[in-house]
Design brief:
The protein has about 150 residues and is of the alpha+beta class. It is about 55% helix and about 15% strand.
Length: about 150
């Protein structure tokens, strides 16, 4: 009877040792996954997010000057978002309304885009800035809305 109890206790002990070995292996796997999760959390915490995917700057009729202090501050804030996002490139598209020749408006659209790009550069944006002029936007119902430049991170 005593030998049977000892054999049973040894079998239970071997089973417990096996369970302990499995738990140690599971613990090691969980610790590895925890380490990976901590690295991912650090990466996410350090990643900057941008709220607005684009920003529009509006101009007066036949003008490429940014006179509004508010607009300059907003472009500077967007420049900060561009820098924090790590965007490799930025596209600035200049628009005009339909008043004037296509040739003149192409130049005006380009000047508007360049005016915005210049403020981005002044505020430390070193990403590649693509200038795209779009003259004579055909939305006749909203001419003043076509007198703009749009900044988009890419």
């Amino acid at each position: 009877l005593y030998a049977a109890q000892v054999a049973e206790a040894v079998a239970d002990l071997d089973e417990a040792k096996g369970q302990i070995a499995n738990l140690k292996k599971e613990n090691a796997d969980l610790n590895r996954k925890l380490g990976e999760a901590k690295k991912e959390l650090d990466r996410v915490k350090n990643k900057k997010t941008v709220v607005a995917p684009e920003y529009s700057v509006f101009f007066n009729f036949d003008s490429s000057k940014i006179n509004s202090k508010k607009e300059k501050i907003n472009i500077a804030a967007y420049a900060e978002a561009i820098k924090n996002s790590g965007a490799a490139s930025v596209k600035v598209t200049g628009y005009t309304d339909t008043i004037g020749s296509k040739e003149y408006n192409t130049g005006l659209a380009e000047r508007r885009a360049n005016a915005v790009a210049e403020i981005l550069k002044e505020n430390g944006v070193d990403a590649e800035i693509e200038i795209v002029p779009v003259p004579n936007s055909d939305k006749e119902s909203a001419k003043s809305l076509n007198r703009r430049a749009v900044i988009v991170m890419e």
